[in-house]
Amino acid sequence: MTSISSAPFSPEEIADEGLKPEEYEEIVRRLGRHPNKAELGMFGVMWSEHCCYKNSRPLLKQFPTTGPRILVGPGENAGVVDLDNGLRLAFKIESHNHPSAIEPFQGAATGVGGILRDIFTMGARPIAVLNSLRFGSLEDAKTQRLFSGVVAGIAHYGNCVGVPTVGGEVYFDPAYSDNPLVNVMALGLMETPEIVKSGASGIGNPVLYVGSTTGRDGMGGASFASAELTEESMDDRPAVQVGDPFLEKSLIEACLEAFKTGSVVAAQDMGAAGITCSTSEMAAKGGVGIEFDLDKIPVRETGMVPYEYLLSESQERMLFVAHKGREQELIDIFHRWGLQAVVAGTVIAEPIVRILFHGEVAAEIPAQALAENTPLYHRELLAEPPEYAQKAWQWTPESLPPCTAVGIEIHGQFHSWSKILLALLDAPTVASKRWIYRQYDHQVQNNTVLLPGGADAAVVRLRPQEEEGGRERGKEGGSFPHSLTPSLSHSSNCQSAVAATVDCNPRYVYLDPYEGAKAVVAEAARNLSCVGAEPLAVTDNLNFGSPEKPVGYWQLAEACRGLAEGCRELATPVTGGNVSLYNETLDSQGKPQPIYPTPVVGMVGLIPDLTQICGQAWQAEGDVIYLLGLPVDVESKIELGGSEYLATVHSTVAGKPPRVDFELERQIQHVCREGIRRGWIRSAHDCAEGGLAVAVAECCIASQLGAEIKLPLSVNDRAGESSSFRWDEVLFGEGGARIVVSVALEQQETWETFLGGQVANHWQKLGKVGKSELGLRVLTTDNQTLVSVSINDVSDRYFNALERRLTIQNTSSS
């Protein structure tokens, strides 16, 4: 008789805990007995993909994780990097996808709360939050409800807790219709002399429960996050936690004060899997055991049983190991901040997690079995790319309608390039996210230097948290760097800053996970370089479908290979992150529909001198505009495969995404950073979705200044040299490590001499910045007009695209 056939649980009960039959067999083998209900639940959450990465861990091992600035790598609550001058930055990204699909406001809000706890658990004060969001088509009423709720939840928690939301990205695509993605990245500046680790130590040391009370909210959230979304799970609201940002604010202050006393040996956030995860991980990392008494836990509900205590994911709770004899000192601190604090357990020599309830042992499991020695699946990789990819790769631009310098005819209707540019600026993925970031307090703490919408990356000033200063005022166009306040521009001490970005083009990754993932890393580094920051390190959030399906695992494995290569090429080690799999929903026929593979990269960079930064807005009439990277030329390999133009204008997702030339990326990004450092470059903006035309238009919109661009192509001559030449590739093609910069006229000669010695022919002079009345004009060398649009028209399309589509304006929690 097998273990499972004699189990005190039905196969359905075992499956409800997220466990496979063979995993239950392994549990019985390890324990030497059948588990009880509480123990089964503990294994269920700790052996979930969300907690143990059983499908992804073998793939994550290929990531580079060490470097001269890495102080803490993967395995702790957050990574930590050295920023020089005694400054250390903690940062990490986490997902809250499934909860946000069910209850968008609370799902997103608690996602913010959870990532902030990862940061201050290390001894760092949170200084910034960014988010990477994915939704279905914005014309859909359900998407509008999810979108509005998620944005409101992020705004509510971040604004109330007093941490600025300084940047992010949002994509809209039908692939995310029923499974939105909510990834939140947080940064914190270390305040404690020593980095606080999570491994328990010191036999006999007390274990303290601190923070909020425990209830039944969030029951089994880790297992819930490791399964496909179904009609039944959409109604599973108890699996969604409820947060209290005001309590978290007190928790931040109490924890940082407690850490500074030297009384804390180790600390762990109670996030996914709650008490189960925090006790088992702390014990396993320290090679010790923990005995924990549930009767000591402050509760908000009556009649709770051990299973509910152990799987509750009530928010704003922490577990501390304190030096014996100093526990009262810590308790007093938390009480003074109006928080719960009790001694609920003890560090023991036997490496087990022992849970007591009503004077009896409710659960007893080896800590390693729960937190370290967990199942690991080495799955077989497809021998060749799946059919969908091979079919998509067969697409070529020749399948598009022919085009001329004037425009293109699509389904019998003529579209000028000006009209197409306006359509791209109106596409929700490209358009301004002003409707979103105006709900966020992005200037709380007075350290936000470049405002959302004004630059390719967020820039946050680094200064001691107790230092006071006036609020710095920039403008949404990002012209702050050349109108610095006196306190910055005349400072006798050079102030540094940190830059941060979150990036992923999921369409690229869907079409080619390996090349697409490399492009994610390259774009993140390019965005940092565009504000003058040296890229330092990465935190990643891997959002994928089911790894149990061959195509899903191929996408995950190839994307990890691409991320690893990209991070090695650009010297940006991975310090940790998050894996969110099973992002699939069942359609009306019961067929799983996965999201696009979405490996989000959060990257941080260092700006040694805060006066040497720039945004994307033109700075003055007469400034000269340049293109860095692959030049505009008949023979340049600028791609339409996977482009925003192809998806928005032609309703096609096909082709191969642009291949990354890392040598060119390194050269172009170095030149951009050096140009900013020397004061030559006055604005910089990378060419991403929508290509060159959209990038130049966004610079015009940000500054409300015009531009005349003259492309080195002739309608009558050079275009005829290549039968495959297309004007839409020139205007809207993507790739090529390209950055649009502007330089003052008086610096032109010096700048061009510098370029010639650095990047050979990988640059072009494009034109000049003009008055707003000029609008944006794109011409050929024989003065044929390709694009002519007014600043008012492009601004209206760009700034009001989201509002035009939103029919649900209520952003409060239902």
From TrEMBL:
Residues engaged in binding ATP: 53, 92, 540, 577
Keyword entries, A-Z: ATP-binding, Cytoplasm, Ligase, Magnesium, Metal-binding, Nucleotide-binding, Purine biosynthesis
GO cellular component: cytoplasm
UniProt keyword Plastid, yes or no: no
Annotated Basic and acidic residues bias: 465-476
Active-site residue list: 50, 96
Compositionally biased region (Low complexity): 478-488
Ranges where the Phosphoribosylformylglycinamidine synthase linker domain occurs: 18-54
Associated pathway: Purine metabolism; IMP biosynthesis via de novo pathway; 5-amino-1-(5-phospho-D-ribosyl)imidazole from N(2)-formyl-N(1)-(5-phospho-D-ribosyl)glycinamide: step 1/2
Residue positions binding substrate: 95-98, 117, 241, 313-315, 580
Chain segments carrying region Disordered: 465-488
Binding site for Mg(2+) 2: 118, 269
Residues binding Mg(2+) 1, per UniProt: 94, 578
EC number: 6.3.5.3
GO biological process, one term: 'de novo' IMP biosynthetic process
Domain PurM-like N-terminal positions: 75-190, 495-607
Cellular localisation: Cytoplasm
InterPro entries the UniProt entry points to: PRibForGlyAmidine_synth_PurL (IPR010074), PurL_linker (IPR041609), PurM-like_C_dom (IPR010918), PurM-like_C_sf (IPR036676), PurM-like_N (IPR016188), PurM-like_N_sf (IPR036921)
A Pfam family of this chain: FGAR-AT_linker
Purpose of the protein: Part of the phosphoribosylformylglycinamidine synthase complex involved in the purines biosynthetic pathway. Catalyzes the ATP-dependent conversion of formylglycinamide ribonucleotide (FGAR) and glutamine to yield formylglycinamidine ribonucleotide (FGAM) and glutamate. The FGAM synthase complex is composed of three subunits. PurQ produces an ammonia molecule by converting glutamine to glutamate. PurL transfers the ammonia molecule to FGAR to form FGAM in an ATP-dependent manner.
UniProt family annotation: Belongs to the FGAMS family.
Name assigned to this protein: Phosphoribosylformylglycinamidine synthase subunit PurL
Provenance organism: Tolypothrix bouteillei VB521301
